[in-house]
Design goal:
With 517 residues, the protein is mostly helical. Helix 3 runs parallel beside helix 6, helix 4 packs antiparallel against helix 17 and helix 9 runs parallel beside helix 11. The protein is globular and about 70 Å long.
Length: 517
């Protein structure tokens, strides 16, 4: 029986190794066939062969990167583990974003091959980021064992006096400086949160009236917006550190204070985005804050908050149907603003929404061998990063889009629950830094899920706003940088979990062998 199970797991492992490069094979075949089949309009640049070559070169670089990661970085754990699945799938999503850039944007009749190559060269930036992170991880592991994930050293065979002396010496080494001691106090954390709200509001008020034609100022606002997310994650890590310090008997914050500080930080960030006119980012942060409430108060107030938010939206929807016939009250027109109100309830006021619904209605369930005829003049493709899910539906079909996004979300939730389960069961084996990183990795999983879901909802026109990319697929250096930082933390925690699981299984096998002997 054991031999049969061993053979079965070996076959599964072989299949995972073969399927590791399945996405690159698929994109290579599809790009060669579909690119050449899409004949450009008259008097346009015919760059089909050049686009095929450029995209195949990019896929070759991705294959080499996957081979390096699986052969040199993840060698200890094997590519079949969750960290390998995470890296492989989301690297394939980056390749999908590059495919959309070549296939849709590349067919513009006014783009030469040099412009397309320069435009698509952006997709080498995330590849470079991943390679740099992998090299840094190898260097850290080589110089300091496992870096932040070294096991706790247990003192064995020491006398009580020697144990007390060792504990005293360790306590002296672990005592933080006065600045860190002050930062972890409850008063300082509330002051930091207040200063974060004031500075964020002032910063975004500077960009509030930014025109869509002022690209330089618009790009600056987007970069500041993504930097705010990194600051938010730093604050969440700081709050978790203060909570851990309180558990160790230090001068920190209680569990309840930690929960409300974390929630308020997300709510303040949503308010800052709303002040700046980033309506989509504000909705993402609001959903992220609700997910944190469910995580913190899953047995009591989390579900109550979700029900309250849904009831509030349904109440506004019913009120909109009443106001639309009798006229909207002044508190909506002057207070909320008709454009923001329409983005929530009266979506038909936007011509782009009607066009998106037409595209969704005409899309096939599953596209066969006949390639998708790229729209040359449709407004829907002028900003490809805002409509990645809609492009996925149009190019590959609704069924493929549903399967891809379903696995996208399920993989992130599987990672979330794995990290949560590991933290609950093995917190005694972790030091303070490890516990805080596991908490932060869970929050980052929830953030990416919230971001992806809001993108899909806006593309399905249940809500409408632009400027919400799909993580890993949509173009945008600042957005991809934030997502890759989150992925680095998540993969580090997954590798610690896989290393711990491997040690545990080896100990169980040795114990069973000893009992049989």
């Amino acid at each position: 029986m054991n031999q049969l199970f061993s053979d079965f797991t070996e076959k599964i492992s072989d299949f995972q190794q073969k399927a590791h490069f399945l996405s690159e094979i698929f994109f290579a075949v599809v790009s060669c066939f579909w690119f050449m089949s899409n004949i450009p309009v008259a008097d346009a640049y015919d760059t089909r062969l050049q686009k095929c070559i450029l995209f195949l070169v990019y896929l070759t670089v991705c294959v080499l990167l996957k081979w390096y990661l699986s052969g040199f970085v993840l060698t200890e754990y094997g590519i079949g583990h969750l960290s390998g699945s995470y890296i492989s799938f989301f690297l394939s999503m980056i390749e999908l974003g590059c495919f959309f850039d070549f296939y849709i944007v590349g067919y513009s009749e006014q783009r030469s091959i040099a412009e397309i190559a320069l435009y698509a060269g952006y997709w080498y930036i995330p590849i470079g980021m991943i390679l740099a992170a992998a090299l840094a991880a190898q260097r850290i592991r080589k110089n300091s064992g496992h870096g932040l994930f070294r096991r706790k050293k247990k003192s064995r065979g020491k006398r009580p006096a020697a144990k007390r002396a060792a504990a005293s010496e360790q306590a002296k080494q672990d005592v933080p400086g006065k600045a860190w001691h002050f930062l972890c106090s409850q008063r300082a954390l509330w002051l930091i949160l207040f200063a974060y709200a004031i500075l964020g509001a002032l910063c975004f008020l500077m960009f509030r009236n930014t025109s869509s034609s002022d690209l330089q100022k618009l790009n600056a606002r987007n970069k500041v917006g993504e930097a705010i997310k990194l600051i938010l994650f730093f604050l969440l890590a700081l709050f978790a550190s203060a909570r851990k310090k309180h558990h160790e008997g230090g001068h920190g914050i209680t569990d309840m204070t930690w929960k409300w500080l974390s929630f308020l930080a997300c709510a303040v960030t949503a308010g800052v985005y709303l002040l700046s006119g980033e309506f989509g980012s504000a909705i993402i942060m609001a959903v992220f804050a609700c997910l944190l409430l469910i995580y913190f108060f899953s047995e009591r107030w989390g579900m109550v908050a979700v029900v309250a938010v849904i009831s509030l939206y349904l109440t506004g929807f019913a009120a909109d149907r009443i106001f639309r016939s009798d006229g909207y009250p002044l508190w909506i027109v002057n207070g909320i603003g008709m454009e923001r109100w329409n983005r929530l309830y009266h979506l038909e006021a936007f011509p782009q929404v009607l066009e998106m619904r037409t595209v969704l209605r005409k899309s096939e369930w599953l596209r066969g061998l006949i390639p998708y005829n790229v729209s040359m003049t449709g407004k829907i493709y002028t900003r490809i990063e805002d409509f990645s899910y809609l492009n996925l539906v149009s190019v590959f079909g609704s069924l493929v889009a549903f399967v891809v996004m379903g696995y996208y979300v399920l993989l992130l939730m599987r990672v979330f629950y794995r990290l949560n389960d590991t933290l609950r069961k093995n917190h005694g084996e972790m030091n303070c830094v490890q516990q805080n990183l596991f908490l932060l990795a869970q929050f980052m999983c929830l953030y990416i899920v919230a971001h992806a879901l809001i993108h899909v909802i806006s593309n399905l026109t249940f809500l409408f706003f632009t400027g919400v990319p799909l993580p890993f697929i949509s173009k945008g250096i600042s957005n991809l940088a934030v997502v890759l930082v989150c992925s680095a933390v998540i993969v580090y925690c997954l590798q610690w979990e896989e290393r711990y699981a491997k040690r545990t299984k080896q100990a169980i096998r040795k114990a069973r062998a000893a009992r049989k002997a």
